[in-house]
Amino acid sequence: MSTELFFVQLINGLQYGLLLFLIASGLTLVFGVMGILNLAHGSMYMVGAYLAWYFVAITGSFTAAAILSAVVALGLGILIERVLIQRLYNRNHLDQVLLTIGMIFVFNSLQSILWGNDPYGVAVPEALSGSVPFTDNSSYPVYRIFAALICIAIAAALYFVVSKTRLGMLIRAGESNREMVEALGVNIKSLYTIVFAIGVMLAAISGIIAAPMRSIVPGMGESVLITCFVVVVIGGMGSIKGAFVGALLVGIVSTFAAVLMPTMSNMIIYIFMILVLLVKPQGLFAK
Amino acid sequence: MIFEKRTERIFLAIFFLIALCIPLFLEDNSFFVGKITTILILAVFVMSLDFLVGRVGLVTLGHALFYGLGGYLFVIITPEYEAVNFWIYAVYVMGISALIALVIGAVVLRTSGIYFIMITLAISQMAYYFFFDSLAFGGGDGLFIFMKPETSIFGLSFLNLDNPTHFYYLALLAVLITLLVIKIILRSRFGRIIEASRLNPERTEALGYNIFAFRLISYIIGSTLAAYAGLLFALQYGYVNPQFMTWEMSGTALVMSILGGLGTIYGAILGTITYEGLQYLFEHMSEDWMLFMGGAIILMVLLLRKGLAGYLEKLLEK
């Protein structure tokens, strides 16, 4: 492998890893704070991508579409938490798993009813459509760099919110002791609604960012869901820092595996995850 | 009496009575006999999962690995153009599956809780891609069974696997045996310790039981039963492919088991019939059957606290 190819792949891996982090962050946040394993998280990624495509078709502007989609996703998150998730806080985890599997069915079906089963693509916004020369004879698309920067910005914002703001303080408190937070007069119900809605919005934003880079197809949510589980488990369930490290590792490992050993590439991340769990059964950043 | 609850006895009596008679009424409709055979085979698979998840406390999202393995192992170890003896080869398949479950179990049982779910998922995904990417095992198309095995015991043959009705009774027998095996295990001393280690692992360990060993043996039993179900399914349709071991397959079985009433074992039969029945109904009602299916699942989770079996028990136990 030449140095040039190595660096291109490294950047590809980092960029894929950052996108994975953005999707996985919502999953791990919701699990960490609320103890809910949301199997429909991948569907929210799919919803984000489809909404972006839909609003681009209507408004013609990617920025407008991205904002509209994120807002719709936030509303959807609040609705789902209020109508469904909230009824299951006192039930066991498996009931929540069952509920979210039911939600996967509903979202997949709604996608096919509303938008059909044809694959779609979103054009890269004009301002970001060029590519940066990398060496004499290779270049890198601007949009991918932009996407990576957005992911880093959101990661930083998430870090800031969780560790420096009042909301973040409540989130961290809710993680460690729900009853105590409630006893101190905090409305834990609305806190949960907010956290869940943020989780949904993070997944949808990932879908929006991914829309110009990947084809928008039925079933795109499920494949990304499993990869996100791998990310979150490697990092340690509930840990946002862990999700960040796990996502970059998985992004780089799977990108290099696809180049170096194509016949094994699908299996590599699972082997990687099993190795991590054998050494650290609770993931890298277990609480 | 190994069937402790009245609801359980009533349900099982009605189930086996109807199940025994079904081929008599559907003699000339081999499509329906085949469809119900598939449901029975699935019920065996779901019961084995219900045992692991509901009774041993091992929530696995990779159970379909063994379902697929049952089919693959059979095709791999049998000569291509020779009708082998079903019973002997079923024992081989289950034996090899048990060995594989021993190795996998020894690894996955080092973790617990959510990590156990994920590591079982990862291992079954690995197996899925292993078969999917391998040319030797037919890749995504899988392998075909060209010769159905014969079923003689000591030279006496009374089952013809090419006959849908005969195959139906073979599947029904599998349901009965699986049910009895699981129920007898649960009633035994072994089963009591399993139950104790699910409810309070620390205390069970403090009493001097090696719960790792008990869980490992249970994992092997559950996985071997799943492999038998997979073998039957592969034989019914004459092929096996990676779709047998998708995580969706494991997830659907988990849905059936929770829907039926987790850990009740007979609820697994009830859950499988209900799920498959609803899916058949919705598929014939509308192209968007998944919307109705999803809606039905969501409604049942919200309304039924302990699954369908729990609801029946509320009605029948006073």
Specify which chain pair forms the largest interface.
A-B, 44 and 40 residues
Low-confidence stretches of chain B: none
Give the radius of gyration of chain B: 19 Å
So what's the CATH class of chain A? Mainly Alpha
Give a count of the beta strands of chain B, DSSP E runs of length 2 or more.
2
Number of helices of chain B: 13
**Proportion of β residues of chain A?**
under 5%
Main beta-sheet strand count, sense and barrel state of chain A: 2 strands, antiparallel
User: What is the average per-residue confidence, as pLDDT of chain B, rounded to a whole number?
Assistant: 90
Give the oligomeric state.
Answer: heterodimer
The number of domains of chain B is 1
Residue runs with pLDDT of under 50 for 5 or more positions of chain A:
none
Number of helices of chain A: 11
Question: Distance between termini of chain B?
Answer: 19 Å
Strands across the major sheet of chain A, in which order?
Answer: 1-2
The CATH topology of chain A is ABC transporter involved in vitamin B12 uptake, BtuC
Kindly state the percentage of residues in helix of chain A.
over 70%
Radius of gyration of chain A, in angstroms, nearest whole number: 19 Å
Instruction: Compute the number of structural domains of chain A.
Output: 1
- SSE arrangement of chain A, N to C: HHHHEEHHHHHHH
Q: Which structural traits does this protein have?
A:
heterodimer, A: 287 residues, mainly alpha, ABC transporter involved in vitamin B12 uptake, BtuC, two-stranded antiparallel sheet, 11 helices, 2 strands, 3% strand, globular, B: 318 residues
What would you note in describing this structure?
The complex is a heterodimer of chains A (287) and B (318). Chain A is mainly α and 287 residues long. Chain A is 74% helix and 3% strand. Chain A has eleven helices and two strands. The mean pLDDT of chain A is 88. Chain B is 73% helix and 1% strand. Chain B contains 13 helices and two strands; from the N terminus they run αααααβααααβαααα. A two-stranded antiparallel ribbon of chain B has the order 1-2. In chain B, α6 (164-187) packs across α7. The A-B interface holds A 31, 37, 39, 84, 87-88, 91, 93-95, 97-99, 101-110, 112-113, 222, 226, 229-230, 233, 237, 263-264, 266-267, 270-271, 273-274, 277-278, 281-283 and B 53, 59, 107, 110-112, 114-115, 118-119, 121-123, 125-126, 129-130, 132-133, 247-248, 251, 254-255, 258-259, 262, 288-291, 293-298, 301-302, 305.
